[in-house]
Amino acid sequence: MEELLEVSGLRTEFVTDAGTIRAVDGISLSVRKGETLGIVGESGCGKSITSLSIMQLLPKRISRIAEGKISFEGRNMLDMSADEVRDIRGNRIAMIFQEPMTSLNPVFKIGRQISESARFHLKLGKKEAAERAVEMLRKVGIPRPEKIAQQYAHQLSGGMRQRVMIAMAMVCNPQLLIADEPTTALDVTIQAQILDLMRDLQQKEGMSILMITHDLGVVAEMCDRVVIMYAGQIVEETDVKTLYKKPLHPYTRGLLASLPQLAGENERLTSIPGQVPNPAQLPPGCRFAPRCPVKIDRCETVQPELLEVEPGHSCRCLLQQEGII
Description:
ATP binding, Rossmann fold, membrane, single chain, four-stranded antiparallel sheet
C-alpha cells in the first residue's frame, strides 16, 4: 500500500538544566493509506513525544527536532513554513489528545470549539460551521447533538468528552488521525464504544490511524502493524498477528507475559522489574539490558541496531540477531 506518512531518523531533543536530553532517538516508521499503525510502550518511552514531533506541537523554547525527516503525502513537513504546517495540522492530519478535559477549552461551548476548525480550514461561514459541528456530533453517536453543542466540557461525561474530541478531529475529514491513548481513564464499556466508533469512521472515510497506547488489548483489536518503543527507540516492528504469535524482543515478551490470561490456572501476573531509564542517564549498551532476564555481558556494552530478523519483522536485540534466543 502507498505510504501516507513516513518518519525517517527522527531525533527530538529537550534542553534542560541537566543538559540536552534526547527523548526520541533516531526512529523510523511509516503509516500506509487506510491502515492502523500502533505505537506501544510504557510511559516515558517516547510515544507521545513522537506524535507531538509529527504535529510540530512541542514547545520551541525548550525542544527541537535535531535530525530526521517527516514526510506527509510525499512532502517533508520540516521544510514547510509555519503557515503550511498550520494548513495541514487539524485539516489533513488531526490528533486526539490523551486527556479531553485538558484539551477542551472550559470557557467555550462545545459547538464553537468544533466549528472553529471548520471555519479556518474549510472556509465555512459561521452558520455553516455551526451546522457542521452538530453534524459531526451526530456522526460520533452523541444523542441530542444540538443541545450538546450548546454545553461546556465540564457538563459532559468522560466518554462524551472523548467523542467530542473525535468529532473535533474528524470535522475536516483528515487523511491521518493520530490517537494518543484515546481510551485512557474510560471504563471498559465506553472504551469498546470509542474503539468501535474510530474503526467505523476509518472504514467510512478511508483514513489512516496512528494509535499510541500502552494497552496491548487495544492493539490486538485495532492495529494492522505495531511498533514497540523503549527509551526513545524502536525495539521491534511487525504485523500485529506475528507480534502475538512470535514476539522476538525480550521487552515485547515481557509486555505480553504481563497480560492476564482467561484460560489456565490463576497464577500471579508476570512483571518487568525496574523502570524505563531516565533519558539523561541511559545505559551504555542495550537500553533494556538492566531489566532484561536473558542478557549477556555484551548487552551491557554494545548498542544493538534495529535489523530485519525475518521478512517484515525487525528487532533491536543482539541475542536475536546472533541466534542465541
